[in-house]
Amino acid sequence: MSKITKAEIVDAIYEKINVERKLVRDIVDLFIDEVKSALVSRKVIELRGFGTFEIKIRKGREKARNPKTGEILSVGSHGIAAFRSGKELRQEVWDLIQEEKPCENEESS
User: Which stretch of DSSP H or E encloses residue 85?
Assistant: First the structure.
């Protein structure tokens, strides 16, 4: 699966509309800042047809493990940003087929 950067999104929008690239970049940055600000204020952002951004609270754990070092540590309750896709987006991506990697347990034919 490939990824797309904010700069590539700016370029794609720039190619579709007749305004300066800097203005497109500023608008994209403002949009992202508004989403961040709303999430920090514990607001839910609903973009109909696309999805919903919200903050969820994860409970703390006494025996969490650092995946890099294996060290056991305590993690307090904390917020995470979550995204749920909207109905239209979910329907559009439903039939996408990902490249499947063969399972290690499967025998080669």
Answer: strand 78-85
